């Protein structure tokens, strides 16, 4: 692992909570990103489902510079991976075993998180060189499933995503999660619809404090 990649990995692990922004409206995604930054988040995952996601990545990079670590999620193939890396992604996230994107990420000094659910899939992700294994969908098995995986892969950083909330996050950390990905559960739906920035920032700050507590 190169020094830049190691630095990115340390920053990602230190974040503990990674907002996963999955929107079909680019403006909503941009708003969600700025709310997260205002709440002190230093790492964001922008999913490929956001229209023109690479444009949003570049805009956030121009505005916040290296202070913000930006990843692109729901990456399914090499073409998407290349576009994300050219746009400046610090890390790639796939919901599945897209093992062919690992070397592309590492060649660009970026991290790669591969999705897995079963013990065999975790092993395949490890063998492919994934820096972190994303356990998805997390809520299908819950913290007990994560704990079982961690017991046989104690040295593999696991990131449960999918159904993680402020309320159950502690159980995932207790089960061995290195960090968690939280999507829409990070933003109160009514407050988001009303663009109540103060309420949303307070919610994310509370979640981040709980993760670091």
TrEMBL record:
Family: Belongs to the KHG/KDPG aldolase family.
Annotated SUPFAM superfamilies: Aldolase
Protein's name in the database: 2-dehydro-3-deoxyphosphogluconate aldolase
Pathway, per record: Carbohydrate acid metabolism
Organism lineage: Bacteria, Pseudomonadati, Pseudomonadota, Betaproteobacteria, Burkholderiales
Entry keyword set: Carbohydrate metabolism, Lyase
Matching InterPro entries: Aldlse_KDPG_KHG (IPR000887), Aldolase_TIM (IPR013785)
Record CDD domains: KDPG_aldolase (cd00452)
Pfam families in the cross-refs: Aldolase (PF01081)
GO molecular function, one term: lyase activity
Subunit record text: Homotrimer.
């Amino acid at each position: 692992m190169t020094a830049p990649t190691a630095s990115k990995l340390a920053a990602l692990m230190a974040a503990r909570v990674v907002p996963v922004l999955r929107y079909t409206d680019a403006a909503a995604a941009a708003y969600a990103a700025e709310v997260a930054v205002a709440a002190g988040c230093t790492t964001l995952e922008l999913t490929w489902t956001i229209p023109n996601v690479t444009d949003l990545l570049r805009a956030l990079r121009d505005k916040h510079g290296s202070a913000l670590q930006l990843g692109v999620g729901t990456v399914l193939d090499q073409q998407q991976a290349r576009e994300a890396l050219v746009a400046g992604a610090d890390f790639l996230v796939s919901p599945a075993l897209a093992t062919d994107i690992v070397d592309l990420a590492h060649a660009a000094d970026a991290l790669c998180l591969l999705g897995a659910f079963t013990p065999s899939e975790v092993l395949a992700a490890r063998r492919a060189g994934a820096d972190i294994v994303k356990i998805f969908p997390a809520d299908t098995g819950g913290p007990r499933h994560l704990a079982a995986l961690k017991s046989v892969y104690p040295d593999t950083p696991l990131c449960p995503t999918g159904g993680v909330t402020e309320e159950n996050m502690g159980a995932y950390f207790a089960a061995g999660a290195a960090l968690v990905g939280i999507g829409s559960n990070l933003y109160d739906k009514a407050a988001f619809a009303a663009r109540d920035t103060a309420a949303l920032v307070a919610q994310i700050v509370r979640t981040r404090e709980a993760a670091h507590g």
